[in-house]
Amino acid sequence: MSGRAAKPPPAATLRRWEREQAQLKANVVEEDTEEWQKDSSFAGLERVGGVDLSYIKGDDTSACASLVVLSYPALEVLYEDCRMVAVSAPYVAGFLAFREVPFLVEAVQRLQQEEPKLKPQVLLVDGNGLLHPRGFGVACHLGVLTDLPCIGVAKNLLQVDGLVRNELHREQIRSLQREGDTFPLIGTSGRVLGMVLRSYNNSSKPLYISVGHRVCLETAVRLVKSCCRYRIPEPIRQADIRSREYIRTQLCSPLEVISSEPESRKEEAELDD
DNA sequence: GCGACAG
DNA sequence: ATCTTGTCGC
């Protein structure tokens, strides 16, 4: 139930991965394809999914992959799937999908088979979509493989196409005064790669939203906004909470789990700044 | 050589 | 991603 450290991937593997990204990228749709996406209040949208992987401290190969489905607009959990997985690929910036996506695809397929009526109409993904060195981040990757609308939600800026988190960038972030405020990320190429969003009044740290698949950037930002109770949009936040909790109960003996219950402390805190 | 590097 | 409690503030 444990594993060793992750080895750096050979250059040949990286080249193979790059080719695969280039091939799959041809299938990405950067526009709205669903009726509910065009509605000002997302009428017709009933289920939003969130995915995440949580890892064990010293173990690079054991993780918990989770997929949750929330009702919309109430944001109540309708479905939860947490499962320990054996991660084989190491983390390499720009190739996150090759580490995490296989387990997420499995989770989606499992849901499709066991609870087809709960299949999400859109997926919020930890990480980037088009905001990526080769324009094909994990949100695009998962979107193409599952043919589901996907939105990339990153907690940190991936410096790409001339984008840098310098003083100017920090100043732009400071200019986001209230939740809902945004500014676009425009690369040297002139393309709009994503949007920086202040998602929560109590946190000055923004989110980096980008198109994954079958959704346009404006719709993506609008939907993420409408899913935020705290800084992290609820579907991803629930997937994150549940996957780490799953790991915690896997790691500790039953007695320890009971005695270290987090009950009174965190739960509903998430106040940054 | 130096810095950058989603999760 | 993960290591980590209390604490200051609304």
UniProtKB/TrEMBL annotation:
Keyword Methyltransferase applies: no
Subcellular localization(s) per the UniProt record: Cytoplasm, Stress granule; Nucleus, Nucleolus
Gene3D superfamilies associated with the record: archaeoglobus fulgidus dsm 4304 superfamily
Keywords tagged on the record: Cytoplasm, DNA-binding, Endonuclease, Hydrolase, Magnesium, Metal-binding, Nuclease, Nucleus, RNA-binding
GO biological process: DNA repair
GO (cellular component) term, any one: cytoplasmic stress granule
Protein family according to the UniProt entry: Belongs to the endonuclease V family.
Subunit organization: Monomer. Interacts with PABPC1; the interaction is RNA-dependent and stimulates ENDOV activity.
Name of the molecule in the record: Endonuclease V
Organism: Accipiter nisus (Eurasian sparrowhawk)
